[in-house]
Design brief:
Length: 205
């Protein structure tokens, strides 16, 4: 009987020791996930990091009276928020010069909050000529509306100082002829006779 009581006492002592260890203030429960949940919560609520590279903050047009800043931004191929690149700005300058719409093209790069504001300084070419259409399946008014919507910087008239913008119109008309199943090739010619200057596009079958 004494042996049995001694064994029982030893078992009770072992259980008490294990219970005290589990409840010790310095020993968190083995299955606790509190620290993990807290870390996950902090990670989820952390704000997104700002880009480490400079971006384009805004695009403005200065000097031109023919075009708005929104029209120039669209034609530049640049947009606010994209990564800033001096080479991309220079390429936009070259595209503007090639259109013939401007006699002078420059840009100003203004630092602003880890980025640049791009200001294009543009001097309008005063010589724009009416556009005529021959042989197309749409009226001239409908063609002009389509070109205004799809060719940046087209206003219904064209410059001939350089023919970049005129060639953009020619390519768009050729694509339109293909889409509308109008057979033929689009040809461009310039009528520069005094008093009746025009840029003419003809769909020749």
């Amino acid at each position: 009987m004494r042996l049995r009581l001694t064994a029982l006492s030893a078992a009770i002592a072992t259980l008490l020791a294990a219970s005290l260890t589990a409840c010790s203030p310095g020993s968190p429960p083995a299955n606790s996930s509190r620290g993990t949940h807290a870390a996950s919560s902090n990670s989820a609520s952390a704000p997104a990091a700002a880009p480490s590279y400079p971006t384009i903050k805004a695009i403005h047009a200065l000097g031109t009276r023919r075009y708005s800043s929104a029209e120039i931004a669209r034609a530049s191929g640049l947009h606010p928020g994209q990564r800033f690149s001096a080479a991309a700005v220079h390429a936009a300058e070259e595209r503007f010069a090639a259109t013939g719409a401007f006699t002078e093209v420059n840009s100003l790069l203004i630092p602003s909050d880890n980025g640049r504001i791009v200001d294009f300084e543009l001097t309008d070419n005063p010589h724009f000529y009416p556009v005529q259409f021959v042989g197309f399946g749409w009226s001239a008014a409908r063609l002009r509306a389509e070109l205004r919507a799809t060719v940046p910087l087209f206003t219904g008239r064209l410059p001939v100082l350089r023919l970049g913008l005129a060639h953009q119109v020619q390519r768009r008309l050729q694509q339109l002829a293909h889409d509308q199943h109008w057979p033929g090739q689009v040809h461009m010619n310039l009528n520069l006779a005094g008093g009746s200057e025009s840029v003419n596009f003809q769909l020749q079958r």
